[in-house]
């Protein structure tokens, strides 16, 4: 009897599933759009296959589908993906009322953080609070510290050059960006550049968490339970790398708040705490702004967990993005002697002596180096994929067809940065394209940092790091890939770019 009931229930379930699949493929309002039939039935299974089983290949499959079907394809039950520079401009224009898709962002980030917040009003407040910590003028103030960090890195390069042993460029670049972002966000740098292998426990957690990549969006239910569990990490031991990373940050954040409580600053701060503050001489503008209830209208100081969530997201956003650009840039330039020689000539003209400091103020004025960095950002594209946005209340007309509120539209910097309507020879690395009269148009279409209200907040910082580190390395060293070829530099999209293998190189010092 029970078996019969079970069988009936299962048959009913299968029938519902089949009818639902038929509806989604043939009768759903998005059924007129070409694309993947599997995705039209279930986003999860499609994502599971391409991003989990094939480990980060969904973006390339989307690119293939665009080449087959044109600028708009269906990539989910309720989701389209576009490959059209003009539609992109429309979605990200300053007063656009498109919002971030909450289902997607809440599976890859923490709720309430600048990156994860999907409510525009709340996002505006959080952005106002954090913007001064990463603004252009703040970056100018940070530039000397970035140069000091670069000099530490240069010292490590000189040591391997003297020993004639190879260096892991991947680890060195990640150590460099981690030291800079940890100082800005946590008020103390993690000291990775001076570690023997350029890494410490915290960066190992981060790297292990990063390898998990798209698990969050392939398994949304598991992921949302896991992220909720993560917010209890102060008292629950959860054996996952991201959670270990969160816990380690929580220790640092807790200690910071004990000694640098901005409510007390200057008045009731205990003399011991004041002494500590003096001896560290270190503050985090990020934490101080977040904890100050007056830093923006309608801002409420977060509790320790919420604060820590924000810091973890900022550390993640500021580390693997810029380091990817550095790794990609060093490989591309040093494997193209004509490009390297031109940069070297430009640098030696501006900085004839090796004793001179290659500073942010001066290096940023070099046109060919700047053009090369733009090309690195276009072709290397550290955050390559999908960025889904939700159609607002008023709906949206896409090529004359009305889309209802709630439909999601994805757009990928990797695909936009290679669109043939904008980019001539998109698969080639050509810095010179940025030295023509066409540069304003190209700048407009470069999608690397995204545009509009949700564009990257760390853009100025990333540019400063790249100018200073590239300027110093290109001026001082000849680098040759060691057991590293184009094959090793192939990549997958694990939310951030994940190269197939690490980039190793040998280093020779320039004598003049
Ligand atoms: C080359 C380096 C970088 C690239 C290519 C990059 C790219 C991006 C992109 C494409 C977005 C939009 C994401 C979306 O719409 O979902 C973004 C947002 C963001 N980035 Fe970056 N980023 C870089 C460096 C940094 C750095 C150094 C920081 C410093 C903490 C940072 C912090 C952020 C933050 C906080 C957001 C969210 C902004 C908001 O929603 O208001 N990024 N970034």
Question: Any overview of this molecule?
Answer:
With 512 residues, this protein is of the alpha+beta class. It has a domain at 110-366 and 455-509: Cytochrome p450 (Orthogonal Bundle), CATH 1.10.630.10. 55% of the residues lie in helices and 9% in strands. It has 22 helices and 12 strands. The protein has helices at 2-27, 37-41, 43-53, 58-69, 85-92, 102-108, 120-134, 136-163, 169-186, 201-211, 215-218, 220-230, 241-259, 271-280, 285-291, 304-334, 337-350, 360-363, 367-380, 413-416, 439-445, 459-476; strands at residues 72-76, 79-82, 99-100, 167-168, 389-390, 396-398, 401-403, 408-411, 477-481, 491-494, 496-499, 504-509. The strands form 4 sheets. It has a 5-stranded mixed beta sheet with strand order 1-2-8-5-3, sandwiched between helices. A 3-stranded antiparallel beta sheet has the order 4-12-9. Helix 9 (169-186) packs antiparallel against helix 16. The termini are far apart. Residues 233-239 and 265-281 have low confidence and may be disordered. The structure holds protoporphyrin IX containing FE (HEM). Protoporphyrin IX containing FE binds at residues 114-115, 127, 134, 181, 314, 317-318, 321-322, 325, 382-383, 387, 413, 448-450, 454, 456-458, 461-462.
Quick recap of the structure?
With 512 residues, the chain is α+β, with helices and mostly antiparallel strands.
**Count, helices:** 22
**Name of the level-1 CATH class of the domain at 110-366 and 455-509:** Mainly Alpha
Largest beta sheet: what is the strand line-up?
A: 1-2-8-5-3
Low-pLDDT regions = 233-239, 265-281
What is the mean predicted local confidence, pLDDT?
Answer: 90
Terminal Cα span = 89 Å
Q: Report the CATH superfamily of the domain at 110-366 and 455-509.
A: Cytochrome P450
General form? globular
**Rg from alpha-carbon coordinates:** 24 Å
Classify the beta-strand content into a percent band.
5-15%
Instruction: Give the bound compounds.
Output: protoporphyrin IX containing FE
What is the annotated CATH architecture of the domain at 110-366 and 455-509? Orthogonal Bundle
- Topology-level CATH name of the domain at 110-366 and 455-509: Cytochrome p450
């Amino acid at each position: 009897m029970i078996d019969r009931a079970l069988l009936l229930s299962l048959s009913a379930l299968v029938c519902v599933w089949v009818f639902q699949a038929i509806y989604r493929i043939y009768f759903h309002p998005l059924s007129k759009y070409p694309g993947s039939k599997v995705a039209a039935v279930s986003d999860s299974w499609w994502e599971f296959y391409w991003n989990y089983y094939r480990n980060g290949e969904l973006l390339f499959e989307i690119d293939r589908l665009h080449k087959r079907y044109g600028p708009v394809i269906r990539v989910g039950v309720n989701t389209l993906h576009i490959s059209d520079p003009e539609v992109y401009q429309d979605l990200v224009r300053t007063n656009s009322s498109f919002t971030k898709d909450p289902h997607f962002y809440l599976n890859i980030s923490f709720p309430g953080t600048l990156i994860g917040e999907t409510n525009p009003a709340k996002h505006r407040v959080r952005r106002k609070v954090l913007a001064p910590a990463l603004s252009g003028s703040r970056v100018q103030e940070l530039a000397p510290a970035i140069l000091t960090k670069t000099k530490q890195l240069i010292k490590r390069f000189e040591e391997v050059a003297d020993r004639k042993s190879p260096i892991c460029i991947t680890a060195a670049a990640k150590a460099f960006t981690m030291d800079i972002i940890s100082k800005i966000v946590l008020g103390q740098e993690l000291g990775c550049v001076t570690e023997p292998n350029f890494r410490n426990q915290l960066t190992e957690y981060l790297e292990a968490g990063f390898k998990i990549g798209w698990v969050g969006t392939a398994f949304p239910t598991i992921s949302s339970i896991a992220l909720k569990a993560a917010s209890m990490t102060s008292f629950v031991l959860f054996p996952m790398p991201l959670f270990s990373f969160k816990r380690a940050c929580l220790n640092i954040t807790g200690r910071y708040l004990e000694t640098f409580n901005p409510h007390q600053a200057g008045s009731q701060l205990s003399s011991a705490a004041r002494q500590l503050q003096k001896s560290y001489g270190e503050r985090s503008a990020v934490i101080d702004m977040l904890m100050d209830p007056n830093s923006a209208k309608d801002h409420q100081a977060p509790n320790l967990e919420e604060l820590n969530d924000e810091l973890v997201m900022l550390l993640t956003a500021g580390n693997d993005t810029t380091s990817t650009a550095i790794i990609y840039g060093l490989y591309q330039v040093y494997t193209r002697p004509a490009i390297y020689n031109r940069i070297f000539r430009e640098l030696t003209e501006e900085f004839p002596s090796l004793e001179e400091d290659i500073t942010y103020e001066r290096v940023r004025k070099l046109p060919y180096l700047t053009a090369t960095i733009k090309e690195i950002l276009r072709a290397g594209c550290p955050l390559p994929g999908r960025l889904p946005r939700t159609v607002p209340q008023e709906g949206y007309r896409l090529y004359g067809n009305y889309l209802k509120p709630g439909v999601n539209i994805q757009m990928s910097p990797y695909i936009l940065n290679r669109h043939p309507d904008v980019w001539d020879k998109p698969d080639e690395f050509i810095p010179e394209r940025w030295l023509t009269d066409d540069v304003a148009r190209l700048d407009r279409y470069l999608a690397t940092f995204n545009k509009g209200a949700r564009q990257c907040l760390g853009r100025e910082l990333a540019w400063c790091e790249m100018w200073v580190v590239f300027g110093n390395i290109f001026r001082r060293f000849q680098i040759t890939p060691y057991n590293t070829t184009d094959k090793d530099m192939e990549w997958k999209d694990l939310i951030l770019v994940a190269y197939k293998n690490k980039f190793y190189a040998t280093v020779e010092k320039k004598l003049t």
